[in-house]
Every structure is written in structure tokens, then in C-alpha cells.
Amino acid sequence: MNVRTWVYWCISGTMLLACGGYPPPHDALSAAQAEVKGAEVGGANENPKAALHVKLAKDQIQKAQQQMSENDNEEAERTLIRAQADADLALALAKEAKSQNDASEASEQVGKLRKEMSK
Amino acid sequence: MMRRSTRFSSVRVSGLYAAGPLLLASLSALLMACGGAAVPPQELNDAHAAYNEAAKGPAADLAPAQLDTAKGALATADDSFQKDGPTEKTKDLAYIAQRRAEIAAAEGGREKADRKRAAADKDFKNAQIQGLENYQKTKEALASEKAARVEAERKAAAAMVSLNEIAKVKEESRGVVITLSGSVLFATGKSDLLRIAQDKLNQVATALNDQGFKSIEVLGYTDSVGSAADNDALSLRRAQAVRDYLVTRGVPSEKATAKGLGSSNPVASNNTADGRAENRRVEIVVSPLK
Lengths: 119, 290
Fold this sequence. Notes:
The complex is a heterodimer.
Chain A: H1 3-19, H2 26-41, H3 48-69, H4 73-118
Helix pairs in contact in A: 2-3, 2-4, 3-4
Chain B: H1 2-18, H2 21-34, H3 42-56, H4 59-62, H5 64-84, H6 88-166, E1 168-172, E2 175-181, H7 182-185, H8 195-211, E3 215-221, H9 228-248, E4 256-260, H10 273-279, E5 281-287
């Protein structure tokens, strides 16, 4: 093995290390962003608990983008998985709040009608 | 022998676990002191707490699939902790398991609220139907009440018309006064009802029964000819004869009384024959219902 070959291996090895080998999690990023949008459309910002998790998800997406820009792709992917879980939770909480609101409204209507009838 | 001792020691270990969290805590402290043994990360403790909370709530019955997903996520996090300790990966898995548990709780809460809403909607519909039925019933009751009132009024009017043909009917403050001329009821000086009088009184009784009344008072009057005592006595006998006859025609006896008033309260002059004929009379005073 001559010197040239050594140099070649050294350079390509260094390049591989620098790239980290882990691909940037573009899919996870767009999935997390889509889930946040879905939660917002589902009314997550109208409920304080749900809004908190929307915020957590957004913060983590931002953090993941930062990590991607620093080539910490594996870290970024994990952060994005957390972000997705928060976005999912935000939507579930928003739906729960909406259902609870509808239920108490319906009960109120029944109460009103019964009261009207007993007059 | 070997086998038996192994079993024995496993029993002891499970007994230790059963002894409660205090023992577990001291055990983990001991393990830590011994060096290297890992303490679960906060994320994993939070995930367990969230799962236990969700399992206690409506999710157990109403969102079992989501709760099961949460349970699986928690097991994965536990496995990771058992194998690799409190690594970043374990923390991520625990974080996700906690969110899954919270999602299951929210889904359970949503389902519970949806059912409550469905029940309320059903109640609302039933109440509406009931309200409509009540309204219909009230309307029908009002209509039949009105029909009954119209019928009663028609009957009363008819009774009045038929009475007017045979007697003078006047509405006064003491009630409706039906005045029958003495000459059509009795022969001079007698208190036996004439045959023709009975026909007239039949009509009076029919009218009275049709119209309804609270009570009637039959008042007998004479003209001023003859002694007051004779007149009083005659007028009473005549009033009683009319009253008794009406009772035989269906007027309740407890509602009918008779009084002889002699020559008092003349309605015309006693100086003329026509006037005296008008004064010889029987009045039936009808107290109306209410």
C-alpha cells in the first residue's frame, strides 16, 4: 500500500465521520409539522392544556431544526418523535374539551326545556 | 435439592417486593451504594404515573385500545431502561409513553363526554315529544271543555225559550224568577193542581233540570180578598203543592223549599179583576249555579 492510498483512505474516512452517516430526518420533520397543524385546526389553541402541548411540540420542532443544522441528525429525529407525541396529545385534549363542552351544552338545553315544560 | 433452594429464594425475593415501596426504595438505595445500579429517570416515573392515572379513569372502559397502546409504549421504555439504563433513548421512550397514556386518558374523557351528550340529546328529543303530547292533550281538553260549555249554553237557552212560552221568566237580583199565574194552576180557593198545571210544571221541571241550579224557592201569593190568615195558609199550601210536584219530576227535594206569602208583594192593583188575577200567582225563584 503506497502513501497515496493511505492519504485517500484517511480523507474519505474523515469525511464520513464529519457527515455522521445519519441522514437528516426530513420525513419526521414534515410529519411533526403536519401534526401540529392538525392539532391547531382541531382547536388545540382554544384549550389551555392542549395549547401547552402545541407549544411544546413547536419548541421541539425548532430544537430539531437547530440540531439538523448542526448535523445532529439522530438527536433531531428523537426530538421530532417527542414533538409528534405532543402534537398528538394536543389534538386528543382539544377533542376531549370540545366533546365535554358539547355535552354540558346539551345537558343545559335539556334542563332548560324541562324547566320550560314544568311551567 | 438444588431446584428446591432456587424456588425458595425466588419466593423470598417476591416477598421482598410485596413488602412495599419503602423496601424497594431502600433496596435501590442499597443497589446504588453498591455502585452502578441505575435509578429510573424522571421521565419513566412520570410515564408510570400518567399510565396509572389513565387506567383509573374512563379510558379503561371507553378507550381500551389507546390504553393498551400506552401500556405497550411503557413496556418498551421499561425494557430499554432494564437493558441500557437511563439513556437518552430510554428517556425519549418514556416521554412518548407518558404522552400515549395522556392521550388514552383524553380519549376516554372524550368518549365519556360523547356518551353523555348522546344521552342528553335523547333526553331532549323525549322531552320535546312529551311536550308536544302535553300540548296536544291540553288543546284537546280545552276543545272538549269549550264544546261542553257551548252545549250547556245551548240547552240553557232552549230551556229558557220553552219556559217563556208557558210562564213569565225574569232575571232579578234574587235569581231567575219564573212566575206562573194562579188561575192556570189552581181552582178558586183550592190547592190541588189542575190537570193543565201539571203539564206546565213538567216543562218547568225539565227546564230546571236541563239548566241546573243551586236551589229553588217556591213562593205562593194570593190577592187581598179574604182574611190574611186564610190567604197565608192558602198561599203556603199552593206553594207546597207546586214544590212537591216538581220534586216528583226529578227536582232534588233538598234543593227545593216552599213559602206562603199571602197577599204581600202585589205585582198589580188589587182594585181590578185583572190586577187581582195577576197577584194570584206562584213564583219559582231559581238560584243559579255559582
